[in-house]
Amino acid sequence: MFAHVSVLVREVIELLSPGPGKRYLDGTLGGGGHSEQILLGSGPDGQVLGLDRDDEALAVARERLSRFGTRLIARRASFAQARDILTILGWHAVDGVILDLGISSMQIDSPERGFSFRIAASLDMRMDRSQELDASRIVNSYSEAELEGIFRDYGEEPQARRIARAIVAERKLKKLETTAALAEIVTRVKKSRQRGHHPATQVFQALRIAVNQELSELERFLDKGYETLQPAGRMAIISFHSLEDRLVKTAFRKWSRACLCPPRTLRCQCGWSRKAKLLTRKPIVPSPAEIDANPRARSAKLRAVERI
Ligand SMILES: C[S@@+](CC[C@H](N)C(=O)[O-])C[C@H]1O[C@@H](n2cnc3c(N)ncnc32)[C@H](O)[C@@H]1O
Fold first, then answer.
1. What is the CA(64)–ligand 1 centre distance, in A?
2. Residue 195's pLDDT is what?
3. Residue 126 CA to ligand 1 centre (angstroms)
4. Per-residue confidence (pLDDT) for residue 192, from 0 to 100
5. What is the number of alpha carbons within 13 Å of residue 89 lying toward its C-beta?
6. What pLDDT is recorded for position 191?
């Protein structure tokens, strides 16, 4: 079994300061590392609702956290559905929320999941394996312009157009079936190798985001995400690339503003009121020691708010 090393655990627990009798939402349960610490900190009767889109992650987390019994409720769902699930449970709102975005090491390192350009596998990349759309469908059927848009918008890939063109030329000869075939095309087009970065890093990130609609799911959650929190409840979100971090930063700033009217408006007309207090003006990042021990933590950024 592959293990996932949780990121910024101490910092998340300090922010959420779990306590007995409280309820928490872990929207990205993964290997259960953050939830485990929340459950330990909220004994004997604190509860966690853990969501994940990936059945395999849920199985690993359920096993790891089995000693907490019914204090963990684990469900297959996107965190974008969190408010509905809280309502069904009769919880309505929680004392703390953690989202630790992206994919886990268990997913990246599983050969058959197709997330990694380092492992030859079929082009899959679905977190939820009951979903129809996978990376192969995108690579083999989307238009050149659509592929270019995905690589540019979700991968910030400077050679998006040339890569899209090369993929379309290649798939006319033969369907692109594997991560290795895709990585080979990207490497051929890009030639240059940035230090420490495989040339296909951004294209694989972009495809993964497109397959799992990661940004729109996060936007759906952030639209009214503050409603998942009780007054004085706290939310911590860890992101791993600038596109996610920008969405989180913008939403948290909006929630912390008293009014959304344009500047110099004499009387407020927006009807908005302040929802939350910013707890992190600048994002918290992992220490050099954490990055040394777990290089996958290197791009993590943690932001947090407190519901008013
Ligand atoms: C970085 S891992 C979380 C690791 C976890 N915090 C731990 O300490 O073990 C991210 C997890 O979130 C899941 N995930 C990503 N986007 C999701 C979404 N929109 N809804 C639910 N789960 C999601 C992935 O399937 C993956 O298992």
1. 15
2. 62
3. 12
4. 65
5. 22
6. 80
Atom of ligand 1 nearest to the CA of 54: 25
Atom 9 in ligand 1: residue holding the nearest Cα: 31
Beta bridge partners of 229: 94
To 10 degrees, the CA torsion angle through 289, 293, 297, 298?
60
Ligand 1 contact via 52 beta carbon (within 6 Å): yes
pLDDT in tens, 230-263: 999 999 999 999 999 999 999 999 999 999 999 9
**Single-letter code of the amino acid located at 35:** S
Average confidence (pLDDT) over 80-88: 98
Model confidence band, residue 208 (pLDDT cutoffs 50, 70, 90)? very high
Amino acid at 294: N
